[in-house]
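hey all, quick one before standup. I had two proteins in the batch that finished overnight and I want to keep them in one place so we stop losing track of which output belongs to which input. First protein below, input sequence then C-alpha cells straight from the run.
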Amino acid sequence: MALLPSLLTALLVFSYGPGASLGCDLPPNHVLLSRENLVLLSRMSRLSPSLCLEDRKDFRFPRATVDGSQRREAQAISVLHELLQQTFNLLLTEHSAAAWNTTLLDQLCGALHRQLGALDTCLVREMGEEGSALAMQGPTLALKRYFQGIRLYLKEKKYSDCAWEVVRVEIMRAFSSTRFLHKRLINKERDLRSP
C-alpha cells in the first residue's frame, strides 16, 4: 500500500513537467525512457523464468499493431499510447505492488507516466477531436483485448509469483516489439525540425 502515496506524488510532480508543451515534440529522451522501461522490467525479476515453465502462456501479442510500415503517424502514436497506458494500468493494481519491489515499480510507473504525457500531446495534435473514436478501432482495440487476456490469466493463476513473472517477460516482449514505432516517430520528429 506504500506504493499508492509515492505514486500519486510522482504523478503530481510529473504532470507539471515539460510534457505539456504544444505540438508533437517528443522529448529527446523518449527512446531512452523506452530502454529504461526494459531495464527496469528486467531488474524486477524475482524468479528465474525457468522456474515458471508450467505457467507459460502465449498471450498472442497482436504483432500487426506494431508493424509500423503500414501505420500512419497518428495510428503509431495511438498504438504506443495504448500499450503504455494498459501496462501502466496493470502495474497500478494492488496485486502488482505485492508481487514486485515497490521502488522499481514506482520508477517504472514514473517512466511510463512521462512517456504517456508526451504521447498525449501528440495524440491531440495528430488525431484531433475524432481521436478518441479512432483510438477505439483496429489496433488499439486489439491491444485492449490482449491486455484483457493478461488480466484474466493473472486472475486464473490467483496472481501467483510465477504468473507475474510470465507477465513481466510478456510485457518486455511487447515493449521490444515497439522499437520500430518508437524509432519511426523520433525520426519523423527530427525530419520535421530539420530545415
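OK second protein, same deal, sequence then C-alpha cells:
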Amino acid sequence: MLLYGLWQDANMTVKYTDIDYNVFSDAARFVWEGGSPYQRSTYRYTPLLAWILTPNVWLHPTFGKWLFVACDCVVGALVARIAQARGLDDQKAAAYSALWLLNPQVANISTRGSAESVVCAAVMAAFYAFQKRQIALGSVLFGLAVHLKIYPIIYALPLLVVLDRPALGARSVTSPAQPKSYGSGSSSSSSSSIGGRLKGL
C-alpha cells in the first residue's frame, strides 16, 4: 500500500498522502533549519514528532511513512507478546496479532502518513512493560504516549487498577476483622490491664 500510495501521488489528481503528513514534513524542515515547528501555521502536535521526522528533510520524504509502518509492526509483535504472557498459545497469539497487522484500515492509516501508529506503539509497549512488572519503564512509555497524544490518558485509571490487583487480592484473602467481644474474657483482660496501670502509678 505504501508503494501504491507513492504511485498515486505521482500520477493522480487525488493524492493518497494525508495532508497532515505534509504538515509534519514542513514542521520537520523548520526544525532542521533551526526554527520552531510551530512556524507551520497548522502544526498542532508535539515538537518531538517534528524532531523524529527530520529525516524527511535530509534522508527521504517518505521516511516518516516507513517509520509509521514499522510502528504498526511493533504493535503487532507486542499484541502477540501480551497474549502469550496472558497464557494464550502461539496460534491464538498470532491470530490476535493478525487482526492488527492484516487490517487494511490500519495499513491505510499508516501508509497515508498518519502518526497514530507511533502513539499505539508507545501505549502497547507501556502495557507490556506493566505486565512484566517493569513499573519504571512502563511509566516512562506511558508518559511518552500521553505526550504524543493526550487521549491515552484514559488508560491511566485501568492501569492503576491492574497494577493494584495483587494488593487487592491480598486484602481479599485475609480474614475480616473479628467483632469485639464484650464477654467475661474481654472484661477480665481489660480489668487486669487497668490493674497493672494502677500498680504502675
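Flagging for whoever picks this up: The two ends are 90 Å apart (CA to CA). Confidence is low (pLDDT under 50) at residues 167-175, 181-191, 197-201.
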